[in-house]
Amino acid sequence: MLKTCRNKSAKYLLNKLYRNVSTWSTPLATAFNSPPYKKINFTRNESGLFRLSELRSFEGFYLLRDNVANKTEDLISEAISTNRKRKMVEIFDELSDSLCKVADLAEFIRIAHPKNKYCQAAEDACITISRIVESLNTHKPLYTALRNVVDNGDILPTSDVDKHVSKLFLFDFEQSGIHLEEGERQKVVRLNEYILQLGQKFMAGAVQPSIIQRTDVPSSVRNYFPAEGDSVLVSGLYTNSSSAEARETAYRLFLRPSEQQNQLLTDLLMCRHELARTCGFETYAHRALNASTVEHPKMVQEFLNELSQGLSPRANADFRIMEKMKRQDSGINTARVAAWDPPYFTSLMEKKSLKANTSEFLPYFSLGGCMEGLDNIMRSLYGISLKNTEMEPGESWNNDIYKISVVHETEGLLGYIYCDFFERNGKPNQDCHFTIQGGKDLPDGNYQLPIVVVMLNLSQPHWTGPVLLSPSRVDNLFHEMGHAMHSMLARTKYQHVTGTRCSTDFAEVPSVLMEYFANDPRVLRTFARHFQTQEPISEDMLRRLCASKKLFSASETQLQVFYSVLDQVYHSGPVSHNRSTTETLIEVQKEYYGLPYVENTAWQLRFSHLVGYGAKYYSYLISKTIASWIWQNYFENNPFNRESGEKYRREILAHGGGVPSRQLVANFLKRDMTPQILAQSLLTEIDTNNEIVQDISNSVLNAEM
Ligand SMILES: [Zn+2]
Questions:
Q1: What does the pLDDT look like over 538-552, one tens digit per residue?
Q2: What SS3 class is residue 657?
Q3: FRET label pair with 269: which of 8, 373, 592, 634, CA 20 to 30 Å apart?
């Protein structure tokens, strides 16, 4: 009974929303379906980038960095002074804020500004800030002052948040070994330097093509690969190739063991272990997981084991379907699925289940329509609207940027999101979120508003019509806006822990949760309409679209578990000289992945995430799991529920990293976060989707019989 009632109320809400948005009547949709409004500059009195008057010209970066250098000196004096009037953590947060505001801004401008002189000035500012930070890292009196407060309490009364954030600052401080005696400290500095260099070399090597003797490539597939004289270049896994033999050849040749890569990886793992031991940790994983959601490597391992057990039969079912597809595809009745097959058959099944090219879906997802969809969710869940906002001359770095003000119905302006959505020369080809200014309490009682940039790489609009998004682009937009809203809705006392500045394994929770909204038919119905006719997307298309995103999720998750375990094992002890990284891979693959290891390959030597994530590759899986748990408990019944939205905002988003995330999640979901509960929530999701997936795969397979 209860369930029917809830569905009804959801439907009512939906109808209401739907009526409200049946044309591009909202200013937000209209704005994003036309070029950004450009104010004509009569006065030439430019406001400066991000409305910083210093940045009316690129030289302003020199002023900013000099100012921050002076301010740093003042704050250090205040922190070590004997008659300090503020809490230590407040001084540290202001110090961090003044450095971050210049460093984050400069880092963004360095990679995003189309004009070289801006990039250069920004890069100089980045270098100056790194030098300041380096000198802070060896400032003993400053360290001692903070250490003293963490160990013995502050001279002023402090809250739990104050204590937690002080500890985080102290941990960051100790990353460079300041707490060690001089010889050990220098060792830490040296090790950090080696690790940086080894990591860079390993990452560069990981993307190098394999150069193979022509005669070593089967003649039947030689023409798939570019040749240079007597050599053939294999530069990737060819996962999209419809030729099974080409995929197999690419897999075997691209993943051929490289002695040099193996040495780099072994040295990297050795240095990391040594670094962790020198700093007093049992292993590198223990060090990396400090202040994380899972808190301890043991919990990661238990979670991965639990998940792995549950996934095994479900992933095998996926592989059986792939096997049938492969047999139909090749006409060979004995064909088996191998390590090079899953990405190909997953994408083939997706295409077949959509029964169309993704271009059939494009007209229903204009950029303006999608922004309206996001606005609908924000209004329903939080009483917040996204308002397209005119910029001052000189405020933005390119002429195709939009600015959104995030406004709450009673609390007013919460922050700004700059939308840098279109590709251009020199812009990094990656969707991401940048914090330009973190939110924090200011000494005068006001709140420093968060400012972020969301960067996407949509094709340049021609403005004969709106920009149209493919289904996966819609997911990315929702994902990145999820990060942005984490920053907007955080109301932390300190910027050091605001929004996405939380632990790595929690940072993807709000963004992945937004993908659940983007994949929900009830949400899509509120905004997916043909950009010319305004006709809503058909129920059949909607069903196919949502189902296509759920295919083979067990085998895909199993692969992620395998990678995560490998990353944990590599970082969980001293490197054994009798054991190669490949032997470890073989063992882990045997236990955690449903498809066998392929002789004479070394996949781990191409796994560049080992450098960036180092013992934290599991983060995405944990974030996904927590997001799934939150979705099932609070939004699956009704994705527009204001009460759930408010609760999620107050109990999760508002705190950023100010409260340990394990505690946040446990309070919010009213259950302790155990490995079993976590694994179960992901398995439940897979099982819920299974019926739809079975239907689709049966119809796809039968259609070809
Ligand atoms: Zn993300």
A1: 998 998 898 888 899
A2: coil
A3: 592
Domain boundaries, the chain: 51-179, 185-288+573-613
pLDDT of amino acid 548 = 86
Q: Please confirm, yes or no, whether 480 is among the known catalytic residues.
A: yes
> What separation in Å is there between the alpha carbon of 260 and the centre of ligand 1?
32
Compute CA distances 127 → 50, 65, 102, 122, 402, whole Å: 21, 10, 11, 9, 29
Ligand 1 centroid vs 483 CA: distance in angstroms? 7
Kindly provide the ipTM of the predicted complex, given to two decimals: 0.99
How far is it, in rounded angstroms, from Cα 364 to Cα 19? 17
Fold classified for 51-179: Glutathione S-transferase Yfyf (Class Pi); Chain A, domain 2 (1.20.1050)
Q: Which of 107, 274, 480, 515 is catalytic?
A: 480
CA of 648 to the centre of ligand 1 (A): 19
How high is the pLDDT of residue 360? 86
The answer to which of 89-103, 257-271, 344-358, 544-558 has the lowest mean pLDDT is 344-358
SS3 content of the chain, % helix, strand, coil (to 5): 60, 10, 30
Radius of gyration of the chain (CA): 27
Q: Is 672 exposed, middle or buried (0-12, 13-18, 19+ CB in 10 A)?
A: exposed
Strands 440-441 and 432-437: unpaired
Please give the structure tokens belonging to residue 114: 């189309």
Residue 9 has pLDDT above 50, yes or no: no
Of 8, 1, 13, which Cα lies nearest the Cα of 641? 13
Instruction: State in Å: Cα 293 to ligand 1 middle.
Output: 16
Buried/exposed code over 442-466 (b: 16+ C-beta within 10 A; e: otherwise) = eeeeeebbbbbbbbbbbeebeeeeb
pLDDT digits (tens, 9 = 90+) for 357-366: 667 899 999 9
